[in-house]
Design a protein that fits this description.
- 49% of the residues lie in helices and 3% in strands.
- It has helices at 20-29, 40-51, 59-76, 84-96, 114-119; strands at 2-3, 10-11.
- A two-stranded antiparallel ribbon has the order 1-2.
- Helix 2 (40-51) crosses helix 3 (59-76).
- The protein is globular, with a radius of gyration of 14 Å.
- The protein starts with a strand and ends with a helix.
């Protein structure tokens, strides 16, 4: 059983990264309307790839980009100087993501995880 990338709840479908509630809230914050099912995750990934000026990323790299972008977006809403280093690190990782990038290459993935940041 997989867990939602955002809230950490168990989700039954291993094909997706979000539960439907978290996906709808995330898409709403990204100005994507009319998400009715989990297939909207592909639309979210496409929008983030467009915003980051990335083209045709495979699913794994697209999910990494979405995770890092949403983490940075949430962190930017917290106006604390203590998070500036994390913000720079996240932006560097977003710039690093290409078609062949592996999760291990991202420096921020263990330091600032989307789920851990929101739950704690």
């Amino acid at each position: 059983m997989e867990r939602c990338m955002l809230c950490g709840r168990k989700i039954s479908n291993t094909k997706y990264n979000f539960g439907i509630g978290c996906l709808k809230k995330t898409c709403l914050s990204m100005h994507i309307d009319d998400i009715k099912n989990l297939n909207g995750e592909a639309e979210l990934n496409r929008k983030i790839m467009f915003l980051c000026n990335k083209k045709r990323l495979p699913k794994v790299q697209s999910n990494m980009l979405t995770n890092r972008y949403l983490t940075l977006k949430i962190l930017n809403e917290v106006p604390l100087e203590e998070y500036d280093n994390y913000k720079r690190l996240l932006q560097q990782d977003i710039d690093k993501i290409k078609k062949s990038t592996k999760v291990e290459e991202l420096e921020s993935i263990n330091k600032m995880n989307l789920q851990k940041f929101l739950v704690s």
